[in-house]
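Researcher: We're teaching a course module on how sequence relates to structure. For the next exercise, students receive a sequence and then see the predicted structure as tokens, so they can try to spot secondary structure elements on their own. Here is the exercise chain.
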Amino acid sequence: MLIDSHCHLDRLDLTAHAGSLDAALDAARQRGVGKFLCIGVDAANAPTVKRIAELHADVFCSVGIHPLDLTRETPTDLAWLLDALDHPRVVAIGETGLDYHYQPDMAAQQQLSLQCHLQAARQTGKPVIIHTREARADTLRLLREAALPNAGVLHCFTEDWDMARVAMDMGYYISLSGIVTFRNAEALREVARRVPADRLLVETDSPYLAPVPYRGKPNEPQFVCDVAAFLADLRGEPLELLWQNTTDNFHRLFPLAR
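Model: And here is the predicted structure for the students to work with:
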């Protein structure tokens, strides 16, 4: 079994599946994908991802506020977050994090939001899903200050080995998406070769970032198989071993997703 550890099922382009989410999930299941983690990005879609998880036994979800969905007028509310997390299908917090590439002027608000999510993680014991882009120093500082025993994952990782190493030293996992297959991603491929087998996850981040040979097309959960195949070849590992290791890692990080 393989697991898509990060997908936005409420945002998929379902044109190829006659508008049916069930059909898109079945296409992935037929290729060996056995579980899906559907990611929350704001307060508005939290009920939606929960409902999707309630309707499908192999789908679990997270809730949180993506850093690019923040506004100056509406800071992340800890009480809301704790209430939203209190659901049997919610196994993780986020995605949260810092993104200075698109919104450097929102750095202060993003940091406060990340701290709120990390506080919720400490109170609930649920792991955090971290989005980070061009915010390496502040991301690592806040994760270090939080010192979470349950830690989490740096999803859709695109940073360098030094950041990966420091994050893993704090207990975090590294999740790789279709970006690792892109022609200009050699630096990321070097990271992918070096991540220990017991710290690696795979994801699609669908509907975004479809891997080669689907680049430029809508991404979907079944393409996690292509990401895994690319990584197995890159790392010189049997595909079956990479499937097993990443599945074991997922269950170790998200023990509620059983």
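Model: If you want an answer key for the exercise: The chain has nine helices and eight strands. The radius of gyration is 17 Å.
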